[in-house]
Amino acid sequence: MLTRKWTPILVGSLLIVLIFFLFNSRLGSSEPIDREDLTPTLFVHGFKGGPRSFDTMIDRMQSLQWGEKHVKIYVSARGDVTIRGNFTGSFNPFVQVLFENNRASINNQTLWLSDIMRRLKADYGIQQVNLVGHSMGGLASVNYLLNEHHYSVPRVERLSVIASPFKGIKKEGYFASNYGAATTDLHPGSEALDQMVAKKDQFPNDIDVFGIAGVINRDDPESEHWDGLVHASSVSGLEEIVPFGQYKEKRLYNPLATHSGLHELEEVDLLLKEFLWGEE
Hints:
The protein is of the alpha/beta class. The chain has one domain (34-277): 3-Layer(aba) Sandwich (Rossmann fold), CATH 3.40.50. The chain has helices spanning 7-29, 51-63, 106-124, 136-147, 181-185, 191-198, 232-235, 266-277; strands at 41-44, 68-75, 81-84, 93-99, 128-134, 155-162, 208-215, 247-253. It has an eight-stranded mixed beta sheet with strand order 3-2-4-1-5-6-7-8, sandwiched between helices. The radius of gyration is 24 Å and the shape is globular. GO terms for molecular function: hydrolase activity. It holds the Pfam family DUF915. InterPro entries: AB_hydrolase_fold, DUF915_hydro-like.
């Protein structure tokens, strides 16, 4: 028979065990995030880009709790896809796409994006994604949408391009100091750029598209507006590809809105937030 001395100790112990059991059963019963409901946002860098192209933007967005960076996707020069990280517990996951050959043609980057998309659906159960492409990353993303329509890849819900030259690059001397297969495609009137316009009827009619262009010379009436490399009119060339009513554009008039500086501006962060994850 228990004495009064031991009764409080026993009751306290039972309470502790009960609380521990309830706490752990609650954790165990919480359902994991259904990957079919996830919409990862893939960030695709441009010509000669790399980790730093989107690192600071993604870090800013994560610090503001707009999403979480959990996954990086590496594509070797041979086209081998390596996915590091996972989507477990992810809230609005950010995915950084990195091409080892960052001077590759639009066609090669398009094929690599197709491989990435197939892996995301087959291996991770991802059903839909958003795409954000800087410069040539935007060209590759659009070309992917013009050529890939298959149940084996996730559906693209929204696409944003930043400083992407759909009419090519006209900067004097640019092609004399740069090399790689990409430079052929970046010439105004190149076969790759013309093919995208020719295939415009294949662009999906259910994707919202947002273009961002930088203008650093607003006060120069003698010059065409540009970001120091890509003219705003070249970014607007996307209007010739995207079906009517699906495209909108924002030009940022700011001396800091340079070609490589656009993805460092908080104003661009806010524009992307509103477009990708804002209220419907």
